[in-house]
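New to this. Please check this fold:
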Amino acid sequence: MRRILLLVAFFLSFSGAAHSDDTPRIMQMAIATGDLKLLEQCVAAGVPVNGFEEQLWPVKEERQWGSVALAVAWEQPRVVAWLLAHKADASAEIGHELTAWDLATEMKLPQVVKALPAPAPPRKPKTGLLATAPPKPDIHDRHAFLWPDLDLLPSELSPAHVRLLLDRGLDPLRMMGEPPLEANAFLKIADRGKPELLQALFDARPALKKEKTLWRKAVEQACRTPYAKPEIAAMLALPPDERRVAGVHAAALAVLLEMLSDNPHLAHTFISFNEADPPEETMKLIRLRMPRACVRSAASERPNKQTAWSHRKTGKPGDLIELKLLPRDGVYDYSVRWATGPVMAGGGTRGVLAMRHGHWIIIDSQGWDE
């Protein structure tokens, strides 16, 4: 993440744009709001008082908006004083040999200028920082604002930092991003591979111990190679669930059903399971995700129609979904096929479900189009 930021900062330095994310978001929140208590908690949690680790930014040409520079840019004199009292480096260059002292002079903040160390040897103030200073952040959506802190380097994210994020508005269950890269804080923290971070999450939000579906997804992440995280998988292990539905493990079937959703433009979805109508107990589970689901035998063909299936009684159109979950040597081969008609466009996904740490997880998958 820091390498990416370094490259971004390199290009921004030539475009004149400001880049405030040298400093973690939780510290930015403290600076922008003038919250000295939070600032103290940030430093206690391991956030560098300068906002970033100097050794991670060896190239001086990039603009490095650390804590002191941000406090000046956002006109927080009390924060500037606190940072200086706690040994923040006020002489750190923001880029192109400019410092917070130059910025405070350009902003006409005499009390701040007086508090900051003047350059040595003495020189006249330089201008040009004010026009490119990062704007004071909009923190109305605290979760979205704090989210980037989950991408800090492993050495930069501590359990105390995680607790601060949760205390200040990070929602562990709120999904961010677009599929297939969608995730929430629970999954992001589990994917860091540091058990102490996941434990901090559980300590702060005990209710997360009931989120077994999330546990399965986290175990699925933890079992991937070459980034396997056995310690995380062990933390999320459960006793195997041996309950069965329609001759298969109910937990394995639940994974398959998570792939289903109703087409909002159609009245029905016709379902087959292992090339037959699903038993009633299976249909009840399917209808929890797809209220308009019907058994396959309820469909009739509509030749030469855009949607080639319709309900035998209502005549309303629908799609066909063919589910397969077949046991093989302790695993399940699965497939989910969508079709709009007997010879019309469709596609699907197939793969293997295996038991790992008490969870049925996908260990192989591939999609296809028709």
Summary: The chain has three domains: 2-132, 142-235, 244-369. Strands lie at 244-245, 248-249, 268-273, 293-295, 299-301, 309-311, 317-328, 331-339, 346-356, 359-369.
